[in-house]
Structures are given as C-alpha cells and as structure tokens.
Amino acid sequence: MDFDSIQDFRSNFANIYHKSVVPMLKPFEKKKKNVMYRSIAVWILLILAGVIYLYVNMPLLKQTRNADVMMCFIMIVIVIIIVGYAITSWQCKSFENKLKEKIMPSIMKAFGNFIWTSTGTIDGYTIKDSNLFTRFETKKDEDCFSGTYKGLEIKINETELTYTTRDSKGNRHTHTEFKGVIAQIDVKKTFKGHTIIRKRSLLNKCSYQEIKLEDPEFSRMYFVDGNDQVESRYILTTSFMERFKNIKNAFRASQMEASLKNNKILIAISTNKDLFKLGDITKPINDTKQFTELLNEFISILSIVDELKLNQNVGL
C-alpha cells in the first residue's frame, strides 16, 4: 500500500498501535524492569568498588599532598562514570534492539509498504559517490527504512560515518565525519549533471565549479557546486531554496546537505539525537509518547517530499 498523505500515516498508526502493538508490549515490561535493576546494580557496585579502593589506599594517600588526593578522587569518579555509562548504555541498547526486532514489523504496517531493518538500505558507495562525505571508512547503521511515498522510492538510514587517523606516536584516533539521517529519494527527474549543496565554511571542499545563485541568504548558508551550471540553476529555483531552508529549521539540524545526481536526491541531516528510539527503561513500556515521537520523526523525513514538491512532474 502506497500512502498519499502524511495524514494517512497518522490515522493508520493509531489503529495499528492499539490493536497490534500494545498486546505485544506486556511481556517486555518485566524485561525492562530487569534491565533497570541491573543498571542500578552496576552503578552501586562501581561506587562501592571506588569507596573500597579509597579505603584500602587511605594510609598511602595520607602521605601525599592534598592536591594528589583530590586528583585521585576525581580520577575514580571519572572512571566510575565512564564505565557505568558504557555498561548501562549497552544493556539499554540491547533491550531496545530486542524490542524493535519484535514489534517494528507490526508498527511498519502503519507505514504502507515501508519496511524497517537494522542494516543499511543506502550503501557506502552511494554515499561516497554523492561527494558529500568521502573520508569515512566505517558506516554504522541503526534504524533504516525503505518503501514508497507518493510513488517515489525512498530509503532512510540513521547512520554514523567514521574514519581513523594516527598521531605522531602511532596511536589511532576515531573521528566522526557524519552522524544523523541520510535519505535517498528517487525523484524521477532527469539530472544529467551533479549538483551538491554543502554547508558553507571558510574552507569548503569543491568537487566542481561553484554555482552562483540568486538567493543571497541561501548563498551565505550553503556552498553549491556542480558540473552543469545551467542545470544547477534550473534545479535550484528560489522557491526550492526557500523550502530547503525551511526543512533545516524544522529539524533544528546542525547541518543539512544534499546531492542531486542520477535522478535521485540524497539529503543528509546532521543531528546528535538518537532518532526512532524506543524502550526507555525509565518509562512504562507502553508509554504512548515515545511511539508518537517515533511516528513524528519518521513522517517528518517523508515530509521532505511534500516540502520540496519532489513528486510533482515540474522543475524543482
């Protein structure tokens, strides 16, 4: 089923949620409490271990300067926080993944023919070919979707792109090139060339020649380059640029970039927020708010089609 409006998703979601999803959630309430108790136990054990360490080493610490004692205390607190956060985060994410594997197929019935998967629907080659992100070596995907909306094929990846470097001592350092959502939309419009919209900075990388545009505000925000000046100006109409700015503001994104090539538009929305999150252990498992938020996050991405009028058989 291919839905034709955002309202279709909203109305269908309420029915699917109460009829199919809620009955599946009850067994997970006990599992959620177990995760919460284990998380509390981890923090208690770590704090207890820190206190014992200080108690055992107190005679030695008394012989050192007060500044050294304070530094030791601070280091113990930092270790407790890092280890505790890592363990509890892993437990919560493991619980969330099991929950999603069980209920997401039912939830997706509310979204027409869209399917959910934890593996990427947009491959690394496609992302590199966009020239938006070229340094990454590793692509870590979480929530991914694929389907059609208003006759357009859409792929959505919540992903993190990272690369590594080595310092002068040979130590490896991991850097994040991108973290957020990448959406690929088959707009069924002929793009003979390649147009790229990037966030403007002092040192913009440039794959092609810069495109001078009519909108001065858009030009201050974005650096646009392409290998076909005429086509790029035809695509990036003043109305398209205005709508593109509106989407960035709606998402409150730190950065939004796009690549238009091979009859597809690939849009990358940078955000540090964990999108499509379910299974918060501090809330009831059937807490409606988190499911409504998942719905809103999903349809907000699909609304790009409506906002940019990508399904209309006219120029952008």
Short descriptors:
single chain, 316 residues, alpha+beta, 2 domains, nine-stranded antiparallel sheet, 8 helices, 9 strands, 48% helix, 22% strand, flat
Explain what this protein looks like in three dimensions.
This protein has about 325 residues and is of the alpha+beta class. The chain has 2 domains: about 1-110, no CATH class; about 115-275, no CATH class. Helices cover about 50% and strands about 20% of the residues. The protein contains 8 helices and 9 strands. It has a 9-stranded antiparallel β-sheet. A hairpin with a 5-residue loop joins strand 3 (about 150-165) and strand 4 (about 170-185). Helix 1 (about 5-55) packs antiparallel against helix 3 (about 65-105) and helix 1 crosses helix 8 (about 290-305). The two termini are about 25 Å apart.
